[in-house]
Amino acid sequence: MAAVRTADTRPQIDEALVRRLVDTQFPQWAGLALRPFSPAGSDHVIYRLGEELAVRLPRHQGAVGQAGKELQWLPRLAPHLPLAIPVPVGVGGPGFGYPWPWGVSRWLDGEVASVDTLGDSTEAAVELAHFLAALQRFAPDHTPAGHTTEALAGHPLSDRDRETRTAIAKAHGVFDTTAMTELWNAALNAPGWDRSPVWFHGDFHTGNLLTSDGCLSAVIDFGGLGTGDPACDLTIAFTLMSANSRAAFHEALGVDDATWLRGRGWALATGLNAYTSYAAVSPRVAAQTTRQITQALVG
What we know:
Elements: H1 15-25, E1 34-36, E2 44-49, E3 53-58, H2 66-77, E4 88-92, E5 102-106, E6 111-112, H3 115-118, H4 122-137, H5 161-170, H6 177-189, E7 198-200, E8 209-212, E9 215-219, E10 226-228, H7 236-239, H8 243-253, H9 257-278, H10 283-298
Antiparallel strand pairs: 1-2, 2-3, 3-5, 4-5, 6-8, 7-10, 8-9
Helix pairs in contact: 4-8, 5-6, 5-9, 6-9, 9-10
């Protein structure tokens, strides 16, 4: 029997649609030029709006709700952080066949960080540690009355167990299956976060860091923002850093062994997920995730 092909239910997003959404819901920006930004992420289609704004529209159901979350929380977090972050200025609603909320934020200039430019920089590694420390110090109970963080609660690493073991099996022959399984088991068995919940970025990897003149300048894409165990943000140590800069990051952040081990587990799980999903069609993703997985195994 022939396989049944599932229809792609993702909305079709083009410049004409975005123009109509902006012009009708934010008429104050109707005269601004609109142009697509590439490469965008897997969660959003991004358009530049004039020189100072960006429009981000979710591609799929999993990204819905991020615009409202960022509008609610990023202005409160920004004053406490040592690097620039996006400043949301509005959330639009469904229209013209597009089904979900979408966001407008201030555009942040910069180049995406790369291993070539920052991988060996202990200065950048310490800056990133200070950023995460500042984010974690802004405790959830610092938020104003009427704002709740319950919907931001993070998911435990164990939620990724089945898909990660499946990915380990798929990657057999490419990476060391035994080493991956041992690391994954160790990360799952490490003591959990037993302190008060803290803020985490949730998608803290090289692609969400911007540089200016070779120095870190901004952190973007807070769609995964949440509270709980911050181990997921340690993924940056394995996507960007070398052994020396990673050691400086580890020391500056003061991470305990259990949290570091869970962070290696997050790096392995997310790297494998991206590798098995996209490596066959994207040499760039293949190279980035291969590095992430191998560095997570090194520790």
